[in-house]
Amino acid sequence: MNKSISFRNKPYSRPNQKWACGKACSGKECLLGPDKKGSCQSTALCQPYKDGDRWRCTRPTHLGGSCEEGPSGLGDCCYSGGSCQPVLSPRQKRGKLILYSCIAISLLLLVFTFTGLNQIFFSPGPLSSKHQLDTMACDSCHSPESDSPMHWIQLAFSPAPDDKRNAYCLNCHKFGEFANKAHSNNIGKTDKAMDKTVACSSCHQEHKFNNLITSANQQGKCNICHKEKIESFNNGHPEIGALGGGQRTALIFDHNNHYTKHFDDDDHSENKPEACITCHVQTGNGVEYRQAAFKNTCKKCHLADVTGGGFLEPGIKYLSVPALDIETLEENNLKIGLWPGDVEDEELLPLAIWLLSKDSELTPLLVDIQNGDVELADLTEVDEATLKLVQKLVWQYKFVLHGLAENPENQLGELRSDSVKPIISLNAVATAVETWFPNIKFEKIQYERGRLAKTRTHEVDVKEKDKSEINPGEWYLKPYSLQYRPVGHEDKLLFSWYAVLASKIEKPFIKELFNYISHKEQPGQCSRCHSIDELSSQIVVNWTETNRLNTSKFTHESHALETKDSACQSCHKVNEDSNYLESYKAKDRNVHDSNFKAFTSQLCSQCHDGNKVTDSCASCHNYHLAVSKLNMSSLVSDFR
Amino acid sequence: MKKLALRFFVVSLAILILATLYYFQDIRVAQGVNPAYDNGWFLFVLLNLLLAFNIRKKLIFLPLGKVKTWADIHYFLGFLFIGGILIHFNFSLSGGLFNSLFLLLVVLTLVTGGLGLYWSRSIPKRLSNRGEYVVLERIPYERQEIVNTMERIVETSLEQDKTIEIASFYRDRIKPFLLDVSDKNDHLVSSDKPMASWKKQFNDLKIQLSSHNAGILDQLWPYVERKVHLDYHHVKLTLLRKWLFIHIPLAYLSLVFMLLHVLIVFSFVGEV
Amino acid sequence: MKNNNNNFPAIVVQRPKKWDVPFGRELTDEFIYKLLSTEPFQQILQEKTSNESDLEKQKKRLQPIINIFKNESRVIQLPADHPLYVETNYGNSAFIVLKGRVNLYRGASSKVSAQSTSKKGLLGRLVSHLKMPRMPEVRSIEKQQPSVTTGSASGVSRSLRKYLISLEDVERTVEQGGIAGIVSAMRRSPRTFTAVTAEDCHLLEIKWQGLRDLMGVSKAFKEYCEKFYRQRGLQTELSKIDVLQGIGKASLSVIAEKAVFESFGKRNWLDPGSNVLNESVNQILEIEPTILQEEEYASSLNIISNGFIRVTKKLPNSEVTVGFLKPGDCLGLYELLHNYDDAGHIDLQHSYKAIGCVDVIRIPAVVVHEYIFKVNKEKVTKTLDRYDFLTNNQSQKLSETLLNKNAVLLNKLINHRYINGTKAMVINTEACVGCDDCVRACSANHDNNPRFVRQGVKVEKLLIANACMHCVDPLCLIGCPTGAIHRNKLGGEVIINDDVCIGCTTCANNCPYENIRMVHVFDQQGNVMLDEENKPICKATKCDLCYQQPVSPACEVACPHGALKRLDLQNLQELVSWGS
Q1: Is the ipTM of this complex over 0.90?
Q2: C neighbour chains, 3+ CB pairs within 8 Å
Q3: Mean predicted confidence (pLDDT) in B177-181
Q4: How many angstroms separate the CA of residue A5 from the nearest CA in chain C?
């Protein structure tokens, strides 16, 4: 058998039709095929014709012409063998399969979309391990309407701005008022990029999908904003520079001085620290080494300084009776009432100047006195008007001191501390006034009546105490001055004076008062170790190290360094030529000549070469320069 | 030579496109944009172009170029899609039930497409070597013709020569075999077992017959052989039709999932 | 009117008949009598009425002729400078000049071939797609009822004139009484000239069926036509043959005078019921008449005018086919040239057999020597390159010749007579996956009806499907009573005018390749159309190469694996290179 059968008289094959004859699979396909609705039309081959009494076959010639048998007596074609059951064509079956499967899946998707199941179904992967808490739900990070598909459509076309989306993260992660800005900080540069809101999600992909944003790729993220594009630590990164970004430490400690001079001194050699870690103790998380407490370190040598014991005069002079040229005043017939006699070497102190500055008439004179243009002890060459002012000054001084003892709040005014009240000992002041101006009450009454008391001097009878008799924290009176001896390290009174004065530094005469009290030669010696920053409109006293800018996240612990000095000095190399102390005189934290040489990148790149250890930005640098605090209340409140 | 040059060009073009897509990501990351958007839209356009092939076949009366050209482009885009998907997911499995289902759909579509392409190229050659060319819908006619012819031979021989053994062989073995498609699984794997089995049966019977009856049996063999070929054709031609029953529905479902994926991405990630 | 019998859902309509649709406005008997007394129909009148004096009996004798005129011809009036037909287009009718003159031109066709006025626009196609009936073979009932259709004059619009820009010298003028276009109408071949009216004309356009019928009833008219052909058509045909290029008009006219016409094989070389395609090669070779026998003396140059010739070589016990020759090829040229050169005498090296029906123009050797070789020998020698399969196989091993893939392919094509096809549907079975997209595309282009069957004869790995091949010599055109099946003027596709077809099955039976199918037709509601005697109205259907569609052929465009192509099977090279 070498040829297929002839299909000359067979119907066309019609794969385009929806329905196919059910008998086609047995090779007995009917002539007409199924109708539009899929019903069998007829399996007959002809429509018999009644010619008189007889039925004639009308099968066409191309199908064989009239058949031999002929139609039945009832006029039915002899070939019609009952109807077939039409079947759908394969293409139609496929079309139905596509349609039904699409409908089924779409319905399923609708069910998932519009029910509470949508969160489970559409979630693009588990959260990071730290966020896998029972209290976390979709609306912890997405808006409350985020389970509504209608809202999705709205969001898709008008997405929420970055700061609104950040708000969800910031609910728990507090980065301060500049949280939305670059580096979560107001670094202060004027670049426009710094004003932009940076979305948390630009670096933090919460759901675990699309590992495109991995830590390795965060390199690219930094370079988006930073104009100086840095490929990696070993490619384009500037030298590391000094610790703290070149900013000085808050505490002034000249390592060179101490190790080359002081610790060699016989008096102090026994207090020499055994190792770096004697003074630099590791903080809890191994990040850095902080200064150990005063009592464990510096006290051994500097206790006398802070308590005034090392000084001839252990206390700070707050108030005094200035030396006055009484003769000149008398010659000019200017009465000043009772004044202590034999006052020598005392000046009008800055506190007194400030107290007197409330009288604006006296301000020019006070400025001259402060500048040294007018000396109260020698008024011979002062003009008459000034002399009259001096007279007024003297009277006002007496009244101010009297008022200070009687009504301190009125006199001190804004010099008020919340921790130490009052900021000056009233008993001491009262005693001083009593000693120096015993007639002040009477004189005041007279003065108010317009009668000035005659100028008279008197002898001040004050028993001078020996230094050993003056206790730390004591206000004591000397013949012509009122002094305070500091308690020791962390003297609250002194601390309060610093704080109050620093906060009012812009006011007239406050700066001079602050400079006087904070002078490094004053007992207490706060400013000898604690640096002071003079900014444009404020003064900052650096009591601790927290204010230094730190953009790196180097931890000693992670580098598993030993605690021997040699290990410390392998990175912290001593700079013997530094002008350490001199650099503090600038009172600018950015001006610093460190005792230690700047770090070199070569130090780190021995390991951070991209092969042994990663050299990406994030491996050393913190993006978030503000410390994040977790808002526990937002978590706790959800607990039942 | 021309075909080789064309193949080389096409492969180079595919590599070029995928490489561009891959390395373009770095540029976008540097601009602060997630490159998944770019290659996602690329995949969206690709999927629509792939589905456009089906539309082209339906609107054949429009002068839009030969369907063969469209088919070649369809295969090319399909391979591009594989590369595009890997880049889009960055060679890692995504998270989440919806995304996983979506990826599964797409992978199945691509796999069925690849299989279909392989079958479309390999099966016709095999069919050409086994029997005459036949239209699937016409196989029942041929089967019926074989039945009619064989029955005629058997009836005639039974009448004239009383060949009861041939008649019973026909009735018990051959006729059930002729009525429908047999040995589907063997034919699916292009096994020679059915033909070898029938040959053996015929040989085994032949040696027990007289030479005259053996001659009659020989007359039946070409029809049985033809039927085996017809069954093979039936199974393979059906496979060539049926794979599209999976591939096309999956493709349309992928489109549905893709649209939803775009909505979800834009509503929850929010960056355009 | 709906039939009440329950076998078919049916509707009764009037059956279309042969002359239901006349060719043109009805000609009156008086006009036809007048016509018969003019040239060239006088001889018909004389032949039919010479022995009859009774007027009534004369009329009765003339009645069949009158009917032919009434139904197969029409009178058209055209102004000057109006085109009748264009060179290389196909035509189905001849034009007899009743009044006026018609000029014939050469070489004006290049512009026109770009025109495809019969194709639908995209919008029209889209609209028809939307209106496409969902059920098969739906026809409009109105179109089954006979109606007079006048058609457009001459079928060629006036606007075509603007494309005929290169009309230069008039090759010939057809005067009153002359016939224009008779060659292509009778031979069903492309027009050899472009005809344009020289002045206001009255023309009688007669379909080739009418010409055929007239030649059938009147011997005198037949002789007149053949003589006309010989005088005009033969020379034109000879001038196109490459061997006779450049020999001058005078030589050509001598050759035309001296040439002898011969026909071999039956006109309808496939009798209904014959099984020539299923017979063995030997049987086929026995059936095919021999034109020239191997080892005979080469006494003439034979040029094939129509049909195909098989070239064979004798072996001790058999004969092997080495190739085929088509219209325009020469038989015996090699031997004549060899003998003319006086390099020894050789007889015919091969035998030549007629495949189907062949018309040959035989030119005696003396005439060939004198008027062809003497004048044009170098050029003629160059044409021998075409026949290398005849000259080269001497040195080839016989087994190589027999088993050469191309030779095997060729033999099968010739034996199955597929070399007739100019647009055969060839399917590469090693690429075809049986998806039926081709059938679906064909259906989409034909109101949801496929027009071919994806099955047929397998030749090597190529399948020649049952789709109309638009043959060089279409047998289906023979015998069509209405002219419903005809050649499209522009592209030459063989198409069936469905409205005119009466379903006589002549063409379907004539087609030896089973490419024409008869179908039942239905109305919009799905009822089978029956005539008054419950016989179904059937129509002949076949592939029309989507000649009216924007996308053609749809089957080839739709195949997603490039497995289907419409090929000219005379061009073996194209077939082999595509199939490899």
Answers
A1: no
A2: A, B
A3: 90
A4: 9
